[in-house]
Amino acid sequence: LGLFRTAEKMGFQWLKIINKDPRLDGMDDLSGTEIPLHYIFKLASHAIHLVVFYERSGNYLWHGPLRLKRHMDRKFVPFWKLHFGRYPGAYEKPELLLVSIDDLKVQIPKNPSSFLEEMSQSRFLECRYREARAFIQLYPDDASLDAVEFRKRAKSLLHLAALTLDSLGVKFWLSSGTCLGWYRQCNVIPHSKDVDLGVFIRDYKADIIPAFQKAGLPLKHKFGKVEDSLELSFQGEDDVKLDIFFFYEEDDHIWNGGTQAKSGKKFKYFFPKFTLCWTEFVELKVRVPCETLQYIEANYGPDWKIPVKMWDWKSSPSNVQYNGVWPVDEWDDVIQIY
Amino acid sequence: MDEWKTNPAIKPHKKRSWYLAWKYKLMNQRALRKLCQTGAVLFLLVTVIVNIKLILDTRRAAYEEEEESAQDYDDEMLNVEVARRPVSNKKVLDVEVYSSRSKVYVAVDGTTVLEDEAREQGRGIHVIVLNQATGHVMAKRVFDTYSPHEDEAMVLFLNMIARGRILIFTIKDEGSFHLKDTAKNVLKSLGSQVAPFLSWRDMWTFVGKKGGEVYGEKHAKSPALSTWGDPVLLKTEVHLTSVEDAECHWPDTELNRRRKRFCSKVEGYGSVCSCKDPTPIEFNPDPLKDNKVFDVPVAVIAGNRPNYLYRMLRSLLSAQGVSPQMITVFIDGYYEEPMDVVELFGLSGIQHTPISIKNARVSQHYKASLTATFNLFPDAKFAVVLEEDLDISVDFFSFLSQSIHLLEEDESLYCISAWNDQGYEHTAEDPSLLYRVETMPGLGWVLRKNLYKDELEPKWPTPEKLWDWDMWMRMPEQRKGRECIIPDVSRSYHFGIVGLNMNGYFHEAYFKKHKFNTVPNVQLKNVESLRKDAYETEIHRLLGEAEVLDHSKNPCEDSFVPDTEGKVYVMFIRMEQEADFTTWTQLAKCLHIWDLDVRGNHKGLWRLFRKKNHFLVVGVPASPYSSKKPSSVTPIYLEPPAKEEGAVAVPAVPAAEQT
């Protein structure tokens, strides 16, 4: 309160943007007082944009979008020039450094360039809890011990994978069944069998396999090759696999490949072009396709809302196409099972 | 076939032909037809316009809602009053009050503020308090003055109400049987002429100003014992005062602004709203040195018992080392008054849309509140869980600060709780003493985040399971053999009498005489000895020191324990196997401690105090401490009484929780 009075005394005009607290979103319907998201202080032709960051579980920083309410002055400042606020954003929690700038003591991120790099890819999507609640009403959650155990293992596997890939600097996102679980019910699908991640082939690093090995996840199989249809699968605890699908970008679409080990048959899965956004899933900050609905529908068709317990990766997806067979002389290279 | 002849008896259908003729006449007139067509088109136009207008209005209303919320944070415009009815410039209220055997209602300016025609409930005197400037309902109570002691409660309530408030009384069914003279006199002093003469099954309504005039009173005597008085409807006008006259003039501070907001909205909280010397709403307890729990979030799980919440928050905010910014009150439902209480103290409140029913509703509310707590405080490794019907001891946070490192480091611990199930006034002595017990007492406890996130949250009971959340937490599948740390003298006091699992009798029997610590800054003794292995060493040491009592005497008698102080005694009871609590239960019963289920044991050992001596009870041979029993001693066996005598119907094992 003192801040605003002092600012006014100095001649500033200020604007406050508040909105619902997303940390109260979840499978339960909670509501509290709205939280401040942005403040804008204006003096003559200068403006200071104060962005309020909140730490979310998953230990990352989140800020909200800047949306003007109807009565607010749309000409208060040139809002379109602001760097923060078009979308909600997620950032790694930076270490701060106290520095002196123009005789003013301020704190800045210890590594300013990496913080600034995050800006262009910071867009954050909330999980669709309202739809998830509706889904659970229709299809009550599996509360069996097996389901609980599986979810626990999937969660820790995902956390470990994220740690490993982050340490290598490899960008990944939630793919296939894991993505569907996030989008449809904000949770791991209990009858899914593994954790699926997507990586652009341009981000591939040879270090991936040894790094996972070191982390306790040995390579279970490797299909395809970097040039075509690469797919890695790592063995987690108790039968839970980690599948990494590598995505290949074309001019007007993106695809990933699949291989049937016993026949050498190749499959191609088509997706419309997508970009990546952050979200929070099982207490982890992860990426998902921003255009999630398109992505999900490409993979699961229009009936993605209906749970399917028996999923055959060779025929069930709606975007799958037979893509020939691997030449027999390549089989040793492109079909490696451990 | 006969020729058909017109039957002269039948009258011709004159009406019909007249109508037809008229109809054809009309239809043949083109002008009339045109007129009807234009009329229809005009009508259509009008409905379309009305619809468009309605859509525009609704949209505008939706924007205006956003506008109003934007006003909240504009410091210049302290728009405080949330009008429950549209603000009007009326100076007079029309009040209707109805009293009858089966139905009561009260309407203020056409809005029904009370209506009760349910059978089998709401008997007695209904009291409504209105704000004398705005006409808003500030309090609504019902006192079943047919039953004893309710009139005393009513007198207490009426005495707490500020002068000038408008009071409305109406009787449903019967309200005089236990309406004693004191209460009658209070009503008389409010201006009632009828109250001193109210008798069996009379109907009565009364509207008056506290400390001022009477606006109306109506009464119907019951003509005979077996019948009720005729229903009574009182219609009267009440003149409103100005807002200044209805408020106190406290000095303008942030605290007093909160106080003003609260006191103009709610009544029945006594001296916090007194014009002179109001009770403080900010407490400045002594800071706690080296406070290890200053950053632990506190979740207060609340329902709709705002007066309980008020009492609880006062004691919580007075505890040494409290961090008000870490407190969040979770209210199970969109109830206004509990939120008002939360805002009075400047705390943060969150409302939860209730799901399910009865104890499942409570359980879902706990889950939502705990999940939200860890979402709001992502760095927290623990959360303190409190309920709205607990008094918190002044050294509650000091107690936690000294013991929390154990919960962090010792994996064999399930929780730290402020409540000793066996800690009654005659069985608890030493506030610096801690125990390990194989149960989860709740009633003011600390939850470890990884226990919640990794184990409990993923398998929390779903909404259709009608289980008590704490009974579920105590099950071996959840507890997994882990123990809780409790103090000998509880750091919380359960005062709730009304609730899902509570009633007056139960409170009297099991909660009223619970010992509660009031000593500030108690230094806990020997905290390290509460670790898993260290505790065993400590027990063995105690047992070595303990004097074996004379097992030929009756342990239920006071004389079983010598008239000493500060000594350690041990007693051996029969306990055939781990789950054999026959003797213990009988002992608990006769010592008047908790006997509804088995609590407070640690490997077949119970620790308490008798006549200020430390008293150990060992179950033989199930307890590993049986080896300390001298061979000459026979473990005492107490037989449960035969079914005919004293077979008390044991209530379904309660959680002693709220709502």
TrEMBL record, chain A:
<dbReference type="InterPro" id="IPR009644">
    <property type="entry name" value="FKTN/MNN4/W02B3.4-1"/>
</dbReference>
<keyword id="KW-1133">Transmembrane helix</keyword>
<dbReference type="Pfam" id="PF19737">
    <property type="entry name" value="FKTN_N"/>
</dbReference>
<feature type="domain" description="LicD/FKTN/FKRP nucleotidyltransferase">
    <location>
        <begin position="169"/>
        <end position="206"/>
    </location>
</feature>
<dbReference type="InterPro" id="IPR045587">
    <property type="entry name" value="FKTN_N"/>
</dbReference>
<keyword id="KW-0472">Membrane</keyword>
<dbReference type="GO" id="GO:0009100">
    <property type="term" value="P:glycoprotein metabolic process"/>
</dbReference>
<dbReference type="GO" id="GO:0000139">
    <property type="term" value="C:Golgi membrane"/>
</dbReference>
<keyword id="KW-0812">Transmembrane</keyword>
<protein>
    <recommendedName>
        <fullName>Ribitol-5-phosphate transferase</fullName>
    </recommendedName>
</protein>
<feature type="domain" description="Ribitol-5-phosphate transferase FKTN N-terminal">
    <location>
        <begin position="2"/>
        <end position="155"/>
    </location>
</feature>
<comment type="similarity">
    <text>Belongs to the LicD transferase family.</text>
</comment>
<dbReference type="InterPro" id="IPR007074">
    <property type="entry name" value="LicD/FKTN/FKRP_NTP_transf"/>
</dbReference>
<dbReference type="Pfam" id="PF04991">
    <property type="entry name" value="LicD"/>
</dbReference>
UniProtKB/TrEMBL annotation, chain B:
<keyword id="KW-0333">Golgi apparatus</keyword>
<dbReference type="GO" id="GO:0000139">
    <property type="term" value="C:Golgi membrane"/>
</dbReference>
<dbReference type="GO" id="GO:0016266">
    <property type="term" value="P:protein O-linked glycosylation via N-acetyl-galactosamine"/>
</dbReference>
<keyword id="KW-0812">Transmembrane</keyword>
<dbReference type="Pfam" id="PF15711">
    <property type="entry name" value="ILEI"/>
</dbReference>
<dbReference type="InterPro" id="IPR029044">
    <property type="entry name" value="Nucleotide-diphossugar_trans"/>
</dbReference>
<keyword id="KW-1015">Disulfide bond</keyword>
<keyword id="KW-0735">Signal-anchor</keyword>
<feature type="transmembrane region" description="Helical">
    <location>
        <begin position="35"/>
        <end position="56"/>
    </location>
</feature>
<dbReference type="InterPro" id="IPR039474">
    <property type="entry name" value="POMGNT1_PANDER-like"/>
</dbReference>
<keyword id="KW-0328">Glycosyltransferase</keyword>
<comment type="function">
    <text>Participates in O-mannosyl glycosylation by catalyzing the addition of N-acetylglucosamine to O-linked mannose on glycoproteins. Catalyzes the synthesis of the GlcNAc(beta1-2)Man(alpha1-)O-Ser/Thr moiety on alpha-dystroglycan and other O-mannosylated proteins, providing the necessary basis for the addition of further carbohydrate moieties. Is specific for alpha linked terminal mannose.</text>
</comment>
<dbReference type="InterPro" id="IPR004139">
    <property type="entry name" value="Glyco_trans_13"/>
</dbReference>
<keyword id="KW-0808">Transferase</keyword>
<dbReference type="InterPro" id="IPR039477">
    <property type="entry name" value="ILEI/PANDER_dom"/>
</dbReference>
<comment type="pathway">
    <text>Protein modification; protein glycosylation.</text>
</comment>
<dbReference type="InterPro" id="IPR052463">
    <property type="entry name" value="O-linked_mannose_GnT"/>
</dbReference>
<keyword id="KW-0479">Metal-binding</keyword>
<protein>
    <recommendedName>
        <fullName>Protein O-linked-mannose beta-1,2-N-acetylglucosaminyltransferase</fullName>
        <ecNumber>2.4.1.-</ecNumber>
    </recommendedName>
</protein>
<keyword id="KW-1133">Transmembrane helix</keyword>
<comment type="similarity">
    <text>Belongs to the glycosyltransferase 13 family.</text>
</comment>
<comment type="subunit">
    <text>Interacts with DAG1 (via O-linked mannose moiety). Interacts (via transmembrane domain) with FKTN; the interaction is direct and is required for normal location in Golgi membranes.</text>
</comment>
